[in-house]
């Protein structure tokens, strides 16, 4: 599923709450905007420990997008979907590897917040998996910069650069 396969009209989204459910939805949407400002993407892990409600909510939004696409009853509407798409929300997650990449990226962001840099050694004793992941990202980034085939997407490269990864 992509944004083009969803039934949307070209209308400006509204930022208004008409009832308690709209108000709760809008609150989570604003939290998602804050997350994007901080991390450069909207891929909140379902078990995002700093805000578990946001991760669960985003998972639910993807579910509701699928229901909407199948023309089933859903609280998702074209205004909400347009608002989500406009800030970079992806209605689908590709696979477990994508989820793992985002989990490691969040670990990198936490490391940077605590240490002020992204220079994690490959054999980082406090988080061996993160050290290996960072090493692999550097390797893939160098391949991309040389014009070779790389597993890094432009979205991932932008996210890494946004946190000062070199």
Give me a quick take on this structure.
The protein has two domains: about 80 residues, no CATH class; about 70 residues, no CATH class. It is mainly α.
Our measurement of the CA-to-CA distance between the termini, rounded to an integer number of angstroms, reads 33 Å
Biggest pleated-sheet summary: none
Instruction: State the shape.
Output: elongated
Following the backbone from N to C, one meets helices and strands in this order, namely: HHHHHH
Relative helix content = 55-70%
Rg of Cα set: 18 Å
Tally of individual helices: 6
Low-confidence sequence ranges: none
Total domain count: 2
Could you explain how this protein is built, in words?
The chain is mainly α and 166 residues long. The chain folds into 2 domains: 3-86, no CATH class; 96-162, no CATH class. The chain has 6 helices and no strands. It has helices at residues 20-39, 52-69, 78-86, 96-115, 128-146, 154-162. The radius of gyration is 18 Å and the shape is elongated. The model has no long low-confidence stretch (mean pLDDT 86).
